[in-house]
Amino acid sequence: MDEQLRKLIATIDKDIRELSLGIDPANLYEPINYILGLGGKRIRPLLSILAYQLYQKGYDKILKPSLAVEVFHNFTLMHDDIMDQAPLRRNMPTVHTKWNENVAILSGDVMLVKAYDLLLEAENSIIKEVISKFNDCAAAVCEGQQMDMDFEDADHVSVDEYLNMIKLKTAVLLGYSLELGGLIGGASKDDRINLKQFGINMGIGFQLMDDLLDVYADKEIFGKQVGGDIIANKKTYLLIKARELAQGADKMELEKWLSLKDFDPVEKVESVTSIFNRLNIEQLTKEQINHYFNIGLDMFSKIDVEKERKTDLLSLSSFLMNREK
Predict the structure, then answer these.
(1) Cα separation of 41 and 5, whole Å?
(2) Cβ–Cβ contacts within 10 Å for residue 284, how many?
(3) What residues of the chain score a pLDDT lower than 70?
(4) What is the C-alpha to C-alpha distance for residues 269 and 214, in angstroms, rounded to an integer?
(5) Other Cβ atoms within 10 Å of 62 Cβ, number
(6) What is the pLDDT of residue 97?
(7) Distance (Å, rounded) from C-alpha 62 to C-alpha 182?
């Protein structure tokens, strides 16, 4: 990622940490400041700003609406952590662990309300469309989360079902982030459609990359346990594809590891990864990732602005496509 984008991310991060969403009662607002202060890639507000800058200079008009997307994203994380009973978020205690579940639920609810407040900073002439499209996006994220929870108990999940789930849970918010920047920046309807589809397809590729890195990343670079999805029997693209392709001894061994309640985590990760290797799952996943990234870049190429204005978004896309963590 180039230095200009790093500086912009640092500015966004500073603005998010300095957001004044409320003070009293402390147990309502401190958890919000806590989760927003844990950091993160800040990709969503960055996408909104870069999409806006395809059409306008600076980012004064898009800044607060772009922060709304990040506040909403962290609201979903706060509630997801409760549902998953996750103890850590970015290597720090989750809100429901540090406080309690009731606090986390209520603080998350306020974050959603405050996201609307930030979106209302958009100009009156477009506010109805901004809110309407946000509502569609937010509902889709909830639908994707419900599908993800349903998959935990499902005996069979197809590749198509999984791809639809990650589209809703993860990718549509990236699509909305770009669409929002285009809308506030004055993009044409066709450009806004292409920006949204660019984001959705890049988002699917982004999540598939997460699935791949969880198994095949360099542990020192990745920064967290490699093989966590395997240990948890999480129905990622890799596992779903392996179950689809496995036959004979591979199928028996894979199903054995999925059924065991008591096991050595290191042995399980090594054994299941070996099955993935025999089935060429790493390469098949990379092909799927490239498929969605290429569709996204094709949508982006159709956006009707000067090539020079596209440089920063292309640079960010390249970074996302080649990341190692």
Answers:
(1) 12
(2) 16
(3) 219-225, 325
(4) 11
(5) 25
(6) 96
(7) 10
pTM above 0.90, yes or no: yes
User: What's the number of domains the chain is made of?
Assistant: 1
First to last CA, the chain: 13
Q: Which residue range forms the structural domain that includes residue 56?
A: 3-321
Q: Which of 74-101 are b and which e, b meaning 16 or more Cβ less than 10 Å from the residue's Cβ?
A: bbbbbbbbbeeeeeebeeeebbbbebee
What's residue 322's pLDDT?
87
DSSP H helices, 186-280, are 189-216, 219-222, 228-231, 237-245, 248-259, 265-278
CATH number, domain with residue 96: 1.10.600.10
Reference 166, options 194, 196, 144, 146; nearest CA is 144
Q: Which two tokens stand for residue 292?
A: 């969605």
Q: What is the pLDDT of residue 171?
A: 98
Distance CA(301)–CA(16), nearest Å, equals 31
CB atoms inside a 10 Å sphere around CB 322:
8
- Do the Cβ atoms of 164 and 147 come closer than 8 Å? yes
The CA distance from 24 to 323, in Å, is 40
**Separation of alpha carbons 74 and 95, rounded Å:** 11
For residue 109, what is the enclosing H or E element? helix 101-119
The pLDDT assigned to 29 comes to 97
